[in-house]
Amino acid sequence: MNVEDTTPEHNAFRLSATEAAIAGLESFRHVASTGSTNTDLADEARAGRLEPSVLVTDFQSKGRGRLDRAWEASSGQHLLVSFRLPVDAGAPSDVVNAVAAAARGAADGLIDPSVAFKWPNDLVVVDGPKLGKLAGVLAEYVPGEPGIVVVGVGLNVGPIAVDGATSVADCGGNPDRDLVLASLIRGLPHRLTHRDAVEHELRHHSATLGTQVKVLLPDGLVLTGAAIDLDRDGRLLVNDGETVHAVSVGDVVHLRPDT
User: Fold this and answer.
1) For 92-99, what is the mean pLDDT?
2) 146 and 240 within one domain
3) How far apart are CA 61 and CA 139, in angstroms?
4) 44 with 90, same domain?
5) pTM score, two decimals?
6) 114-148: pLDDT as tens digits
7) Of these four, 141, 161, 210, 249, which has the most CB atoms within 10 Å of its CB?
8) What residues make up the domain containing 197?
């Protein structure tokens, strides 16, 4: 699908488009529907289109979650957006962390309950009127000169009736996707250039660090222990009582103290 051909007549993201221009994001597009915003921007990068870009859609027919899981959201109810950003220095994870931190800051500024990071790529609400997963972040690296990172954010804005999920509206916030995205973009440039501040933010607002966790690893093994820190590359450090393991990929379950 050519995303240029699906741009709606009435842009529902005027504030966000203005913030994108201020932030130096050269291309801002809002489309009614597409398969996957991440796939669209990554495919364009492979074809030589490398400018910093934002692509937001009302509906994704082929949205994917982490570990290639299918993910769907009602049309026009939630924020489905991807960013294409260069890796000028440092690691691709720096860019991913900056976007995740900006998304947390945007959501946190709109609702009373605190928004926290659940390692590796979720935003969660752990207190307030409705607990659960608020957003997910998914990234893809496209090698080149420069290398490109495409980072997608799926953030629940309108009411959501899914077990284990919550939304901006469910937590008493204004369910305006443009406000959420504009705030995210506004907070992004500083985070892209201040890695140490982002690392502090990830730790300070972590729902995972300091808890007992069970990590389901890709090879089928299970690691249980205390989540004690994040390393410089964003890997979760888990102490199983004998060894500190640096985990880069895995599904994390937070355990109750008596588990």
Assistant:
1) 94
2) no
3) 18
4) yes
5) 0.91
6) 999 999 999 999 998 899 999 999 999 999 888 99
7) 141
8) 3-204
